[in-house]
Specification:
- The protein is an alpha/beta fold.
- It is about 45% helix and about 25% strand.
């Protein structure tokens, strides 16, 4: 009885105060629309960020640094100075990486050696960032191949002395000529340039993630991982 009376009274109030009813409904609609829009935007931004982060290789790669060994090679001593960390377990070797590569099911898996070495070019010396890796590193990134090619299977297997350079490196040292096929001396080895990395596609889309790291990678020289593990 009380429910029916309350319901009838509510209906009468609604029709008796049409303007107030419309304004109330309008306010409720705006509130609901605002909440839906806010959560939709948050979900959209989250999806855009996660998609672009995945393109950068943060969720689809396994990075393994090869062992620097225990011999007296000067370049290896130089590398140990940069990467010395007290730990109980021994660092992974190139053989460990090859075994893991066969056993682990993943979209991309790559090893990495890196160190600063002295380069001699046109009778001038400069320090360059030298990285040993394999093509899966480039596949997990969003850098386009500006010219040339990446390492092939033969060069990876046989530790050939070839390299891929970033376009910032190419512009600095080969501004007036095509770097493809040129020989550069880094440390005690001579490497032939077979490819040049171009701009980052992710950066072109407006997602400016970690610009400092991207510029460092595009100034670096990349050699096959098997070559980097030897020197």
């Amino acid at each position: 009885m009380h429910f029916s009376e309350s319901f009838n009274s509510s209906i009468q109030n609604i029709f008796s105060h049409k303007l107030r009813t419309v304004l109330t409904l309008f306010g409720i609609g705006i509130g609901v629309f605002s909440l839906v829009t806010m959560f939709s935007l948050m979900f959209g931004f989250k999806k855009i960020i996660l998609d672009n982060m995945s393109k950068m290789g943060w969720n689809n790669s396994v990075i393994i640094r090869a062992s620097s060994g225990d011999d007296n090679n000067s370049s290896r001593r130089h590398r140990r100075r940069f990467y010395y960390i007290d730990r109980e377990a021994k660092p992974l070797t190139y053989a460990d990486y090859e075994m893991l590569r066969k056993e682990i099911k993943s979209k991309h898996i790559y090893g990495m050696t890196e160190n600063w070495q002295k380069m001699i070019l046109n009778n001038k010396e400069d320090w360059v960032f030298l990285r040993g890796t394999n093509p899966d590193f480039f596949k997990s990134k969003t850098y386009i191949l500006k010219s040339g090619r990446l390492f092939n299977r033969f060069e990876e297997t046989n530790a050939e002395k070839v390299c891929v350079v970033g376009y910032i490196f190419a512009e600095k040292y080969f501004s007036d000529t095509d770097p493809l096929g040129k020989i550069i001396t880094i440390g005690v080895n001579r490497y032939r340039i077979v490819g040049v990395l171009g701009e980052d596609e992710l950066n072109k889309s407006g997602m400016d993630f970690n610009e400092w790291e991207r510029r460092r990678e595009l100034r670096a020289v990349y050699i096959p991982l098997s070559t980097g593990a030897l020197y």
